[in-house]
Amino acid sequence: MIRRLVEIWKEAGPKLEAIRHREIREADNRKVLALLEGAFNHALRTAPLRPSSGLVEMQKWFAKLPR
Length: 67
Fold this sequence. Notes:
By secondary structure, this protein is mainly alpha-helical. The protein has helices at 2-26, 29-46, 55-64.
């Protein structure tokens, strides 16, 4: 059963990859951005402001790890 599933995925893999590439080529980026505009604007209005992205704090934690 598992071997059959592996074979199915081996056969489907290239076909799925071709579909993915076609969808990327045919994507209408302006339309997608227009669809996401409302969510982006909502996040800008409602998300709390943060003094940093958290990268500096994460680096401080990493610096404390034993080497």
